[in-house]
Amino acid sequence: MIPMTPLPYYLHRPSLQTTAVVVSSPHSGRDYPEQFLRDSLLDKLSLRSSEDAFVDDLFGQTPDFGAPLLVASAPRAFVDLNRSLDDLDPAVVRGVSRRASNARVASGLGVIPRVVAEGRVIRSGKISYSEAVERLDSYYRPYHAQLKQVLADTTKMFGESLLLDCHSMPSEALSTTRVRGAVRPQIVLGDRFGATCGKHLVDQVEAAFRAQGFVVMRNTPFAGAFITQHYGRPASHRNALQIEIDRGLYMDEQTVTRNAEYQGVKTRLAAAVKQICQFNAPQVRLAAE
Fold first, then answer.
1. Predicted structure pTM score
2. Contacts of 193 (CB under 8 A, 6+ apart)
3. Which of 14, 54, 164, 208 could form a disulfide with 63 if both were Cys (CB 3.0 to 4.6 A apart)?
């Protein structure tokens, strides 16, 4: 029996799209290719440390609120969908020449990563350029083509779009995050310091999460990466906002398992997303204006 080829992404559409909101989860993929696992220096649990584990499920009710949800299938350790195609690491891919300084590539976090959390190297040696191209053609390009299409369709339907690009952040990344004595954030909204999303929309999203009891901060320590920067064009009514959630709220980071608070966090996130979707539905917006 011929094995099934994994899908390049999972698109969950509502029965009827009623809102300008689109939700994406580019780092929650967990379809690990067997050959990739065999070639890795790390076990699967270690590889999963770079995953935004469970984020696709945390936002899984999105279609119930009239918005599409796009989810990656490929794991981040295999190909990082939140990077530019140009972010190829010469230390990972044979035949790639060194380019101008790129902090993400230099740290091993290019479009085909060299390391996972804590700087642990994924494999010894390099992959061929043809293998790199195959990964990009099989997963990266289809994901972005679909995201581009969903956003274009949404903007055409509603005159604007709001992409919520959803991620999770290691608790340790927040250990030194303090602003004027404030408590550490549980959710960080990244709009590239106002460049990728209208301020009124960021205010609206922040208010929705705060209403559910989350501590929210903007752009520190994460201001938004490639997807936010690439798709966010507020002047053209295309808005993009990165959402980072503290993993410690809902999971055991060492074992990559749900903790006792998981369902409660999921319920609160769903309530916030529902409010955001409702506010960005045409009939609600018209009534408010």
1. 0.93
2. 219, 223
3. 14
